Amino acid sequence: MEIEDLRIFVEVADAGGINSAARRLGLAKSIVSRRLLRLEEELGAELISRTTRGAVLTEAGMSFRDQAADICARIDAARDEMSPNGDIRGLLRIAGPASVGTYFASALAEFARRHPALSIHTRFSDQYVDLVAEGFDCAIRVGYMPDSNLVARKIGSLPMRLYASPEYIAENGAPEYPGDILKHAAITAGTNSWVFSDGTQSFTVNPQGRFMADNAYVLTEAAAAGLGIVAMGAMIADPYVQDGRLLPIMTRYTLPDVGIFVVRPQSQHTPRKVRVLIDLMVERYASVDL
């Protein structure tokens, strides 16, 4: 029984089909099907029931899936322990936010340069990615981390400030106090609250506005177009400030910095490729306010 056949079975089980698993693994569908069939023949049991809609685990497959995943994890951990300074091989799948993906591109390129035997597949999207269901090893996430079943490592902070365009300020004025926010149009990512501090006490405001988006650049462009005020990370807003399209406002108050994290699914063994990536990201970003 070959370890790669076990890996392919686990991938098919988690992806919900041979086609999806083949895309994740970067293999031809015929190779995935052949190795899966070989494993079933060795075990003398059907693991996957093929249907026109995909693949469904049989009773034997459901029983065997966790055992196969545990075997793969143990072998990976053993390899890491035997060669902690050796080449990192295999495939690393990383998800990240499209809004700020470009700021991590150089670190990921450097990681690939340092480890030429490792294949790296990335997906940058502002839509939520289920790491386990979609087969990702880890993800870069920006925000305030909610409770979840993921293991998170903070790698940096993103200062947040309030901005508006010169045109908006000329027409509507600029808020001076947190309570003034309610008199202005806000540009937000949803029904989030803004929490301001003057150094001694905090003020929570629920901003209201007609423009919402799930992408930081779309929000920033809307503010630059004069649609309202926005709370934005400095690394995104700074170019607009330098061009004169946005101005920092209400600067006597601060907003909480947003954390930048690498998250991974919970497991007994953290793959070495993920540990080394986290080390590089901490090296790059832990002491830098982006």
Q: In sequence order, what are the helices and strands, one letter per element?
A: HHHEEHEHEHEEEHEEEEHEHEEH
**What's the CATH class of the largest domain, please?**
Alpha Beta
Q: Tell me the domain tally.
A: 3
Q: Termini separation (Å)?
A: 48 Å
Relative strand content: 15-25%
Architecture per CATH nomenclature, i.e. the level-2 architecture of the largest domain: 3-Layer(aba) Sandwich
Query: Which geometry do the CA atoms define?
Result: elongated
Contiguous uncertain segments of 5+ residues: none
Category from helices, strands and their pairing = alpha/beta
Count of helical segments? 10
Largest beta sheet: what is the strand line-up? 4-3-5-14-6
By DSSP, the count of extended strands is: 14
* Global Rg: 24 Å
Could you give a short account of the major beta sheet? 5 strands, mixed
The share of residues in helices is 25-40%
Examine the coordinates and then state which fold CATH places here, giving the name of the CATH topology of the largest domain. D-Maltodextrin-Binding Protein, domain 2
Mean pLDDT: 86
